[in-house]
Amino acid sequence: MKPQPPPIQGDGVAKKSRAAKASRREMLKVLYVLLALASTPFLYYIFFDLPPKFSLQINSAEGLDAAAAAAQPLSTIVNMTLHASNRRAPGRCYRHGEAAVCYAGFTVAASRTRVFCVGARDALDVPVVAWADGVTLPNEVHDRMAAEQRAGFVELEVDVKLFDRESEMPTWMWCKVTTQGEEPSDVTPCRVFATQNWVSDIAPRWMQ
């Protein structure tokens, strides 16, 4: 009987190696699919359900010039326009909110904001009138405000808190605005503190 040649071990090793590589490729494909499925809601939340953007303009500010005359209590009326921009597909409504106008950390006027809704991918101008009677400021703050009045400008900070109808968590924003005498101030972007805002600005411009 003619002896048979021993089996070539290399063929078996090569087959096992190819099978292992194919198995790893299949596992990677499955992992990629699972990762894509898991990240889809997160990516939608960041890039497509974008948070709103706000800016603010002070149209007029009455009563602040009293600081230039003497260190006496102020009675103020600050007329503002809040520009709201909704960057997501559904509309967005706010049931109420609050606005506080501050100078050097002291509140010089405050008000509630009205109920308003912004349509899908739309913008809206919301009037806000803040006021206060008998505002007392420290002498050094009076002196600083009087000096700015003589220079023709006063730097104010406006803090706004809005409550979305869909959430109990408020949207906070901080706006730094410089009045220019009797002229309306420039429109100033507000810094919004909300869940999505820390990453939303990296979205492509066409999404914003």
From TrEMBL:
Superkingdom assignment: Eukaryota
Keywords on record: Membrane, Transmembrane, Transmembrane helix
Residue intervals passing through the bilayer: 30-48
Record-linked PANTHER family: OS01G0712300 PROTEIN, OS04G0515000 PROTEIN
Protein name as annotated: Late embryogenesis abundant protein LEA-2 subgroup domain-containing protein
The species this protein was found in: Oryza glumipatula
